[in-house]
Amino acid sequence: MSIDIETARKVAHLARIKVEDDALPALASEFNTILGFIEQLQEVDVDGIEPMVSVEPMRLARRDDVVTDGNQQTKVLSNAPDAREGFFAVPKVVE
User: Fold this and answer.
1) pLDDT tens column, 4-18
2) CB of 35 closer than 8 Å to CB of 1
3) Does residue 36 sit in helix, strand or coil?
4) How far, in Å, CA of 71 to CA of 6, rounded?
5) What is the pTM assigned to this prediction?
6) What is the mean pLDDT of residues 60-71?
7) Phi/psi at 48 (nearest 5 deg)?
8) What are residue 27's phi and psi, to 5 degrees?
C-alpha cells in the first residue's frame, strides 16, 4: 500500500493536524515508511506464540477486593467547616 499526497492531506485533516502544502510530500513519505515497517511485521510467524503483557513472565501483584470505609473519616472531616457525630453538618434547606 502506498500513501500519496492527497491521502496524506486527508489523514492530516481527519487528525485535525495543520500541515502546509510543501510539507505534504515528506508526510506521505513518513506514512509510507511506517506502512513498510508494518508490512515487515506482518511477515513474522507468530503461530503458537501466546500474547504477553510484559517481558517478564510474572503475574501482576493484586490485592484482595475488599469493601472498606477507607478508615479516613477523621481525615476527611478535618476539612469540613462543621462536622458533628462523624458526619458533615450542613444548614437545613427544607422546611
Assistant:
1) 999 999 999 999 999
2) yes
3) helix
4) 60
5) 0.51
6) 83
7) 80, 0
8) -65, -45
